[in-house]
Specification:
about 110 residues; mainly alpha; 2 domains; 3 helices; 4 strands; elongated; binds zinc ion
Amino acid sequence: MEGLTESEIAGFAVGALLLGASIAAQSVDGFIATSQRRSLNMCKRCGDLRMVACSTCKGVGSVRKGGTFTFAMLEDLYETLGAETNAADLVACSKCRSKGRLLCPECSKVR
Ligand SMILES: [Zn+2]
Ligand SMILES: [Zn+2]
């Protein structure tokens, strides 16, 4: 640590401490949320809703033909521009049967 003043070293130490504390706080948060749900006998995946949003259609229930990768982005763009979404380009999501939600895999397997 040559060339560093004591206050600089102290600054590094405080910075590292704060960084470590904020990382620890985040993981503690996640841990508490999960363990709270578990102690309340709630599902840690869906919080006892027994439903999770469909990952294929993002809960919308329909997907754009030719792939879902840019679907949400395009949808936002269309809404921003105020243009009508071409319904002919949308097909019902086959994963959730256009409901936008799926039975929670955690709940349906345990109970
Ligand atoms: Zn879906
Ligand atoms: Zn669940």
